């Protein structure tokens, strides 16, 4: 049984960039600015804790010594150490940058192409999360530690300024659309609407930074160590050009006011109440006919007067 259709923004789709030409200038600009420094980190020109963590991970005795497929499966577990739940569409914006890094650095490092892709996408997700939190690049290292899920033996020393961040957590709040699907289930059909965006409950940010006790995390002032943004002009990745789809004319719709209801309930009502979105607007149609009639009448009067005006001019010339 299918209950109805829900408008689904491209930002919630994994293939948003390739199939729906999704763009987010703010996130794309941040990714472009971080590209040079992330490349330097992978090349070993700049220090970042992610490289020592990854080195320790692949040196684990539990890692298979043979069979590349099993090694990659083990290595992918490194990704699970980071709680970086970004929207699928925003995540797809990082793919061209990771592809460019892989192309530029493959066969130049001891890292394999698979490892370059794995590490770079973690760092790019930190940049996207920074945009969600509306924080400056100088807070990137704190966001890195907030996202990391360390074991007790990898906790930082108590005298370092990042202990609170490493013991904290990042929480991604569900959008209204995601909550509706969770409530109703798979009986809904998702209709991709290019000009729509995600909705959040009132006064709810997309991501919360919290301490280990659930309080709001307070970012500390630092010297910018660990920032993923570089002052060097960013390198623009190669992005395959795709033709933009022709915009479809918007059809007039009627809406039913639902005062006092939370956004989740409002979305359900607007999408699923039978007949609520397809009632014909007879008044608008009547006004259109009246305007057309008035326009046609004026046009006929103007055409009828043209011969009279011309004959008057001829009569004056003869006289």
Features:
319 residues; mainly alpha; 2 domains; two-stranded parallel sheet; two-stranded antiparallel sheet; disordered C terminus
Question: Please, could you describe this protein's structure?
Answer:
The relative contact order is 0.14. The protein is built from twelve helices and four strands. It is globular and about 55 Å long. Helix 2 (25-43) packs across helix 7, helix 7 crosses helix 8 (140-147) and helix 10 (176-184) crosses helix 11. The model is unreliable at 231-241, 253-258, 275-293 and 313-319 (pLDDT under 50). It is mainly α and 319 residues long. The strands form two sheets. The protein has a two-stranded parallel ribbon with strand order 1-3. Strands 2-4 form a two-stranded antiparallel ribbon. The protein has two domains: 4-210, no CATH class; 282-319. It has helices at 16-20, 25-43, 49-58, 68-76, 88-92, 95-105, 113-133, 140-147, 163-166, 176-184, 263-272, 282-318, and strands at residues 4-8, 169-172, 188-192, 207-210.
Summarize the structure.
This protein is mostly helical. The protein has helices at residues 16-20, 25-43, 49-58, 68-76, 88-92, 95-105, 113-133, 140-147, 163-166, 176-184, 263-272, 282-318, and strands at residues 4-8, 169-172, 188-192, 207-210.
What topology does this entry show?
Elements: E1 4-8, H1 16-20, H2 25-43, H3 49-58, H4 68-76, H5 88-92, H6 95-105, H7 113-133, H8 140-147, H9 163-166, E2 169-172, H10 176-184, E3 188-192, E4 207-210, H11 263-272, H12 282-318
Parallel strand pairs: 1-3
Antiparallel strand pairs: 2-4
Helix pairs in contact: 2-7, 6-7, 7-8, 10-11
């Amino acid at each position: 049984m299918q209950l109805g259709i829900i408008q689904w923004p491209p930002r919630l789709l994994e293939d948003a960039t390739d199939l729906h030409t999704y763009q987010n200038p703010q996130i794309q600009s941040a990714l472009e600015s971080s590209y040079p420094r992330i490349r330097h980190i992978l090349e070993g020109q700049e220090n970042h804790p992610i490289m020592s963590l990854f080195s320790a991970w692949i040196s684990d005795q539990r890692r298979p010594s043979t069979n590349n497929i099993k090694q990659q499966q083990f290595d992918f577990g490194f990704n699970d150490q980071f709680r970086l739940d970004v929207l699928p569409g925003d995540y797809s914006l990082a793919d061209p940058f990771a592809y460019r890094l892989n192309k530029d650095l493959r066969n130049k490092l001891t890292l394999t192409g698979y490892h370059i892709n794995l590490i770079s996408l973690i760092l790019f997700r930190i940049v996207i999360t920074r945009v969600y939190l509306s924080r400056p690049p100088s807070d990137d290292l704190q966001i890195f530690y907030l996202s990391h899920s360390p074991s007790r033996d990898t906790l930082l020393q108590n005298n370092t300024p990042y202990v609170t961040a490493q013991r904290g957590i990042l929480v991604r709040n569900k959008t209204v659309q995601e909550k509706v699907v969770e409530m109703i289930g798979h009986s809904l059909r998702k209709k991709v609407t290019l000009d729509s965006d995600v909705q959040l409950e009132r006064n709810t940010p997309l991501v919360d930074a919290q301490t280990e006790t659930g309080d709001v995390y307070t970012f500390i002032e630092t010297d910018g160590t660990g920032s993923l943004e570089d002052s060097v002009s960013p390198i623009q990745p190669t992005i395959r050009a795709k033709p933009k789809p022709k915009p479809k004319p918007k059809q007039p719709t009627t809406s039913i006011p639902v005062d006092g209801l939370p956004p989740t309930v409002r979305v359900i009502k607007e999408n699923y109440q039978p007949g609520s979105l397809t009632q014909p607007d007879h008044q608008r149609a009547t006004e259109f006919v009246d305007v057309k009639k008035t326009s046609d009448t004026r046009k006929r009067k103007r055409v009828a007067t043209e011969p009279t005006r011309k004959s008057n001019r001829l009569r004056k010339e003869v006289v």
